[in-house]
Sequence to fold (275 residues):
Amino acid sequence: MDSFEARLQFISVIKNLQKTLGVSKRLDNDPVQFYLNHYEQHYEDFHQCLFDTATKMDSLDRLNVVVYYSKIVEVLHANQSELNARVLNQLLLPSIDAMLLLALPSQDWKALTNLSACIDIFQRCNGLIGGIVELQKPTMDSHLPLDKLQWYTPSEHPSIHYHESFQRAATLLQDRSAKQQHMFQQFKLFGLCPVPLSRPQPSTQTIIHRMESDREKHKRLKENLWVLPRPQASILNEFEFRTLWESTPQEGLTKGDYRNMSDMNRIAHASYSVK
Fold:
C-alpha cells in the first residue's frame, strides 16, 4: 500500500469512528487494528491525517478522534519496541495538547461537554508515563461575564519533549474546567444566561450527522443491556441452583408446583407432536 492509498483509507477509518470505535468485533473493521497493521510504514502520514481530518469535523465529533488517539497510545505503550518508542516519543505524546485542543477549542462552549472524557484520557496517558503532571483545581473570577473571559490556547509550536506537551495539556484542561464551573455558577446566580455562540455555526449536514451519531450511540447502549453476563464462565451456576434448591419448601412440592409441571409437560408434548 503506497502513501496516498494509506492516507485515503485512514481518513475513511477516522470518518467512521462513531460506528466502529469500541464496538467492532471483526479485526478487519477494527480502527485500532487498521492502524497497527500499517503504521510501521505510514505512522507519520497517519499522524497528519488525524489532525487534518479532525480539524474539519464539528468539535463534538472530534472526541471520537481523541479517544482513538488514546487507544493507539495505550496499545503502543503496552508493546514496547524501538519503533513504538519512536512513534510515541516523537509524534503521539508530544501532540497531546494539540489533540485535546481539537476537542476543547477556544470560545466553543458546547465543546465543554467533551471535558470529562478529555480529563479521563489525559489522566490515563499521564499515568502511562509515570504521572509527570498533576491537574490543579481551577480558579475563576465569578464576577466576569461569560463573553469577557480569556480562553487559554496552547502554543502552535510543537513540543520538542512530551513533558512540555503534557504541561500545556494540563493547563488547557484546568482552563476549560474553570470555564465550565464559571458557566454553572452564572446559571445558579442568574438563571438562564446568554452564552456566546461559536463561529461558524453548525451546518444542516453537521446537525444531521450529530443526530445519526447519537442514534448510533443509543443503539450501542441498548445492545449492552441485552447481554447479562453470568457470574462464572459456565452457562450454569452452581450457586444459583443451590440457592433455588434450598429455598424449596421442606414439605415438598405444592399444588402450584404440580400445576406448573403439568403445564410444562403439556407444552413439551405439543411442541414435539407429530401431525
